[in-house]
Amino acid sequence: MERRRVPALHCGHRHSARAHDVAQVSRKDQTSSYYPPRSRWHTRLLYDAARPVRRYIHLRRLFQAARLSGLQLVLSVAVPGLAFLLLGRRLLGWLVVAGYLTAALAFIAALGFPAASVSYGLLISLHATSIIFVEGLWLKESGFGARLAVAFITLFAVWGLMYAPLVEFAQHHWFMPLRQGNRVFVVQRGVAVNSIKRGDWLAYEIAGDNYRGEREAGLYLESGYGIDPVLALPGDRLRFTPEAVYVNDKPLPLMRHMPVQEELVMPEKVWFIWPSLDIYRNYGVPEASISASMQRTAMVAQKQIIGRPFKHWFGRRQWP
Length: 320
Fold this sequence. Notes:
By secondary structure, the chain is of the alpha+beta class. It folds into two domains: 41-173, no CATH class; 180-317, Ribbon (Umud Fragment, subunit A), CATH 2.10.109.10. It is built from ten helices and 15 strands. The chain has helices at residues 7-30, 41-56, 59-66, 70-78, 82-86, 90-109, 114-138, 144-173, 212-216, 287-298; strands at residues 175-180, 183-189, 201-206, 219-221, 224-229, 237-240, 245-247, 250-252, 262-265, 270-272, 279-281, 299-301, 305-309, 312-313, 316-317. The strands form five sheets. The chain has a five-stranded antiparallel beta sheet. A four-stranded antiparallel beta sheet has the order 8-7-6-9, with no helix packed on it. α4 (70-78) runs antiparallel to α7 and α6 runs antiparallel to α7. The N and C termini lie far apart (121 Å).
């Protein structure tokens, strides 16, 4: 009987085994010593601890009902109207977006006026409505009372956690509306003191505690904020006469309750701003006491300066 030789199969088997060994060595060289990657204990601990919370609030049901990814859900909460657009309510979504942008513009343009308060409430309402729409998918099997309670909680949360802190931050760092008499000024917060010139209008703080002595004498100066032009800069010389007040020998008209016989040199980091204040005094308080109190108020230190009013605010001229 003739024996059949199968060298090709034998060689193929030898070649396959060699390739397998090379692949094993290559894989062993390329992979990390920590392969497969280990799960960190704190990640697993937090994930397990959050599992009852996710089950209790039906977070999986929320994602399934909303058909949104985690990022889309976060953006839907942060961006008013986006939830309607992502979930197919495009007309309603664009109406919410347009209404929100219009209300935002009206709020900024009418700062300090009642229209700004109305626009502010509309901003909060539209934003909360967008979030409540997503919550409705999550709570569609809940009763009317539960959904109404969640809606009110959402409305107050949007106001207290988002808009109130944002407005507070803007007033301390960007702009602030101030009312003086019947006029409203929008003030740009912060001002480079080196840029202040005579005639510039500044908003500054007036602390009522400075006038305790005058109160005892029957003189009451209203505290709060003042917005008035700068008359003199640090280092300027002032001279008061019955006819005028001289700033570096340049005459300026006398203002109400200014002294009529005095000279002074402005200290460093102090600006002379004569205040437009309402003054309340008892009968018999001499004019000299009023002039002295007003003069102390007019010495505005750097820490009292709030900012400079914008010359124009959405077409409204604020100061010359």
